[in-house]
Amino acid sequence: MNKTIYVIIALAAVCIIAAFVYIAIEICQRKKSAAGEDTAALEDAQEICMKILTHSGLMLFTEAERQYGSGTGSLKLSAVKAQVLAMLPDWVKAIVDMDWLIKQIEAKLTEAKEQWKANENLSMIANSNSFQNGKSSPKQVTVK
């Protein structure tokens, strides 16, 4: 009878160990699943940021350039960043890395500068801060 008790205890120990292994595997799988959901949410948030920058970036940069003029790069960047953040839903602001967002804003600024160079009317609007202050009159702008 003593051997039977030892066998039962050994089998119970194996069952308990197997249960712990099963629980550990389940926890790992849930963490992986949650990490996948976090990655998907981050990708969605970044896509929203890029859509805002794509659709509003040129206007935001042109207005900042017009409003603040040359030599105020950090001020213009801060103004555009604040405007972009104001457009974002709270859940996006909570998970998007601000360094990533600044890099995307700077990349869109480079694109805006290229568009200003390619389009005289855009360039004139961006550089018309003296008109805003009443110092000069604007040239006739032809909209195509």
Explained architecture:
This protein is 83% helix and 0% strand. It has helices at residues 2-68, 73-87, 90-95, 98-118, 120-126, 129-132. The protein contains 6 helices and no strands. It has a domain at 39-128. Mean pLDDT is 78; it is low at 130-144.
Q: Give the overall average pLDDT.
A: 78
- Can you write the helix and strand succession as a string? HHHHHH
Main beta sheet: none
Radius of gyration: 29 Å
| Strands, count | 0
Task: Find the structural class using helix and strand composition.
Answer: mainly alpha
Q: Overall 3D geometry?
A: rod-shaped
Q: Roughly how many Å apart are the termini? A: 99 Å
User: Count of helices?
Assistant: 6
The helix content, as a percent range, equals over 70%
Strand content of the residues, in percent?
under 5%
Key traits:
6 helices; mainly alpha
Helices and strands in order:
Layout (H helix, E strand, L loop, with lengths): L1 H67 L4 H15 L2 H6 L2 H21 L1 H7 L2 H4 L12
Helix pairs in contact: 1-2, 1-4, 1-5, 4-5
